[in-house]
From TrEMBL:
InterPro entries: FLX/FLX-like. It comes from Rubroshorea leprosula. Belongs to the FLX family. GO terms for biological process: cell differentiation; flower development. Keywords: Coiled coil, Developmental protein, Differentiation, Flowering. The lineage of its organism: Eukaryota, Viridiplantae, Streptophyta, Embryophyta, Tracheophyta. This is Uncharacterized protein. The keyword Coiled coil applies. Residues 22-49 form a coiled coil. The keyword Coiled coil applies.
Amino acid sequence: MEVDIGAGENVKKDLQQAHFEVQSMVKARQELTAKIQQASQELQKTYNDLRKIPRLHSELDSWRKEHQRLHATFQHEKGLNIEQVENMQAMEKNLILMGREVDKLQAEIRNSELTFHGPIPPSFSGGHYLNSNTSYPPSIQGGSAYVVGYGIPTMMPMVVNHVPENDGFW
């Protein structure tokens, strides 16, 4: 009996050891099942991502084409803008040259009027082409060169080179 009791205790220890090993195997199995489930989910996600790749390539190609089209449009408009700026600069130079030419011509006109008629104040229209000052009598042929009141000559002379001025009443 003592042998049976000693053998029963050994069996009990072996049984406890086997029970402990079963529990650790169950725990290991649960951990492996969780890892397999996580790996399966990651694999499914990767598979879904791989299925999206052709669509993403297509979208990337369309964006690349759109970029190329916009870049070509930008370059074209940039060229047009450069051409327009160059034209505007040329027009500006021409305007400056024309302004200088106008200044030269006005100076020549003033000089010629000064040498021909004496000093002339500018007319209301801003031009210096005609003598608009009535204090200078017009050139007359025949009769008296004297003017009687209000700028009227003593006899009806023939006026040479006189263009009547428009005072805005006509």
